[in-house]
Design brief:
Pathway: Cofactor biosynthesis; biotin biosynthesis; biotin from 7,8-diaminononanoate: step 1/2. The chain is an alpha/beta fold and 203 residues long. Helix content is 33%, strand content 21%. The protein has one domain: Rossmann fold (3-Layer(aba) Sandwich). Strand 7, helix 5 and strand 8 form a beta-alpha-beta unit. The chain binds adenosine-5'-triphosphate, 7,8-diamino-nonanoic acid and magnesium ion. The site of magnesium ion (MG) has 4 residues, from helix 1.
């Protein structure tokens, strides 16, 4: 049986949800976002569901649905709840499960438990989403360093947006991880665009 795939990023807003949709469609796997902070009426689960065409992927309900768009520990506090990591248990499925985190790896879920701890708890392997901007080499290598320190398996890295071949080469050569592909800026967010974008990723 496959380990779950955990899609994390070098920060928030780097394109995890978009890339999760492309992967769910490509692999026909299930999708689960354990903690949604804010945007409940247009959650990441709703977005991915709207972009996926196949009918075998199952979209599992979030463990925590928080009303405010902040770091989950703060959103939880504002809603008067405390996220209990023991209650975040992967949904049962016979299909491969893709999990999307919130923000990057060191984002807190409560006062002692971070997204990276959740990846370990779930026994998942990681796909890291990076974007090319000035400063992104540092953010990317720090993320990889944290994963390696915990001996978390890294399936590879996907770059999102404009190409920067020299940065991408530096990162994969230095960190010795697999370049799984790059998703260009997509002009439209239709199901067909997402299905076609699967060809940009080797997995
Ligand atoms: N390759 C792309 N082409 C066009 N638009 C993109 C691309 N990647 C991301 N976007 C847009 O950028 C925004 C942020 O992307 P996305 O929601 O996937 O980020 P995220 O990493 O999932 O954020 P969060 O931490 O909130 O979960 C969205 O509006 C998304 O549609
Ligand atoms: C609300 C937002 N869309 C994300 N899901 C949460 C991002 C938390 C980032 C926290 C941080 O790194 O400072
Ligand atoms: Mg997202």
């Amino acid at each position: 049986m496959y380990k779950p795939l955990f899609v994390t990023g070098i920060g928030t807003d780097v394109g995890k949800t978009l890339i999760a949709a492309i992967l769910v469609e490509k692999l026909k796997c299930d999708y689960w976002k354990p903690v949604q902070a804010g945007d409940l009426e247009n959650s990441d689960t709703i977005k991915v569901q709207a972009l996926v065409s196949n009918t075998s992927s199952v979209f599992h309900p979030e463990a925590y649905r928080l009303t405010q768009p902040y770091s989950p520990h703060k959103s939880a506090m504002l809603d008067g709840v405390v996220i209990d990591e023991k209650s975040i248990v992967a949904p049962k499925t016979n299909n491969r499960l893709l999990i999307e985190g919130a923000g990057g790896l060191m984002v807190p879920l409560n006062d002692h438990f971070l997204v990276i701890d959740l990846i370990e708890q779930l026994g998942a392997e990681v796909i890291l989403v990076s974007q090319n901007y000035l400063g992104s080499i540092n953010h990317t290598l720090l993320s990889i360093e944290a994963l390696k320190q915990r001996k978390i398996a890294i399936k590879g890295i996907i770059f999102n947006g404009d190409e920067n071949a020299s940065s991408e080469d530096y990162i994969v050569n230095y960190a010795q991880i697999k370049h799984l592909g790059r998703i260009p800026k997509l002009p439209t967010m239709y199901k067909k665009t997402i299905a076609n974008a699967g060809t940009y990723i080797s997995l």
